[in-house]
């Protein structure tokens, strides 16, 4: 019989609340014969304050035994900036080789957007997840003095760029519009930019059906607000991907509905699924958080594990709920979760 | 008697057309007793193709004798990406120590924006111009092979960060709202991020009247489309500034109206003023380019040279023209320039 062995990391702030709803929907949508086992991990600010630890080797050994990981949110103002981000979130992405950071953007009918004219937005960003300026390379000299020099080194390898570019081409090929946009800044960051561009152009030859284009990251932010319909699949570096996916989320319904997958396509380690939003400590514990982004992340998780029909049902439930939301009074986190459970089982 | 000795670099594509209008407005607005001298320089794609040169030491020696520089646009698809950007634009910014890259964003009544609800946008971005990932540090090994590694090094110094942060605080102090936002990514780029944050917090102590906040660059792109009214002055690094100012331009009237100054506040070298837009080769030579961004750059130039009243008149002319534009049939580049000349002299 089939089973899913899931590591669950509620994390900080609203993390626990949204993960609870995500798990409710997951349990509800899975066929009877699929056994869902979950193990909860207490990472984040609490653990850091209690033990000084963020993510140990033993933690990684334990996490890697699971089929996948569902994460709520990590981060709290009581922890110095960077400690949990570098010490937990990025450490995990790098340790488990999550090189495909998948972030779909779809504006559903009736969903609020800051853009005028309700454009038809439906694209997915494939963000590189294990290289670029995120490697933690760099340092400081004469730290804290008026002569301090701080460097950050963006590291880009042909190996790392090619595998994510290939993943993006395969995704573009599988979509009706078959269009792939490379976003970089190759006119200024010429070393990394030319590597990305050359590999992109080389792989493009194997995908004659895929229409390709190149856009500088600064110009991409313009198109995301003036012409988001032009995008189908975007492939980009780790930092540019971080920036444009927040903007993409903002124009396509907000970070309350933005899902992401930190995917290891080779499956050498479990992939991790998480909402794009953070821990939002200002609204934590009040039942105000929107669990939709987590539920959509559960759909990505289901698809990654081969439960395509179930993923489709979750996506459809969210789409229906969002579209009808305009007529509903504000609901609590649990009420939205319950509504989605109702839809996936109904 | 007073005089302005101006270096004019029309450049490529629409550069010549927009600069012509900028100069018309500049001549028209200057008081009779101010002698305007201009010298045109032929930089850009033509010169590069003819001579292989982008910007020589002799060019720099000649340029530095002027009071200021007005630039149209540099860049052409016939030149490999990066050659003119690194070899001309960035070389000039670095050589003349243009460390304050000033980019105002003001949405005027009636001007089209992709955002719903016509928000009140009026902020200025102070982008660092001589450091960060723009230094050209980095390189490649095993170039062109499957084992290539390409690095880009962001270089940040206490000296460089402090001077631009000070400039931004002074600007915030001089504005009615007195608010300054630091935009960075200090939770991931911790070396550079902490340098920026520490210096920002240190200088803040000298400006008790200035309200300060810190926002990650990814979140900043969200606020720029959902709540742009929150911004008054933003200070940020070279690359983040590049990205968010294109987005800022898009939401506040488009890059057709976005001006910038590459300023050397110490006046050890002439400052340079240019529209944020590029050379737009697709519409070059057709009289379709909007010269407004160049004219607004002329206003920044005037203010930099101490002609505040004249700068105000140019700004007011543009504001009036933009606001009334909605009732006008499309005009040519020259017609818009003529209308602005009429307004500054009328
Ligand atoms: C919290 C931070 C480390 C993270 C990132 O920069 O990748 C977040 O912004 C994201 O996009 O997942
Ligand atoms: C053309 C390019 C070098 C430049 C930059 O990246 O600074 C441009 O995008 C700008 O914003 O002025």
TrEMBL record, chains A, B:
InterPro entries: ICDH/IPMDH, IsoCit/isopropylmalate_DH_CS, IsoPropMal-DH-like_dom, LeuB_actb. The record marks 134, 185 as: Important for catalysis. Signal peptide: none annotated. Mg(2+) binds at residues 218, 242, 246. GO terms for biological process: L-leucine biosynthetic process. The keyword Oxidoreductase applies. It is an enzyme of class 1 (oxidoreductase). Keywords: Amino-acid biosynthesis, Branched-chain amino acid biosynthesis, Cytoplasm, Leucine biosynthesis, Magnesium, Manganese, Metal-binding, NAD, Oxidoreductase. One of its GO terms (molecular function) is 3-isopropylmalate dehydrogenase activity. The keyword Lipoprotein does not apply. Pfam families: Iso_dh. Pathway: Amino-acid biosynthesis; L-leucine biosynthesis; L-leucine from 3-methyl-2-oxobutanoate: step 3/4. Binds 1 Mg(2+) or Mn(2+) ion per subunit. Belongs to the isocitrate and isopropylmalate dehydrogenases family. LeuB type 2 subfamily. Catalyzes the oxidation of 3-carboxy-2-hydroxy-4-methylpentanoate (3-isopropylmalate) to 3-carboxy-4-methyl-2-oxopentanoate. The product decarboxylates to 4-methyl-2 oxopentanoate. NCBIfam families: PRK03437.1 (NF002898). This is 3-isopropylmalate dehydrogenase. The gene is leuB.
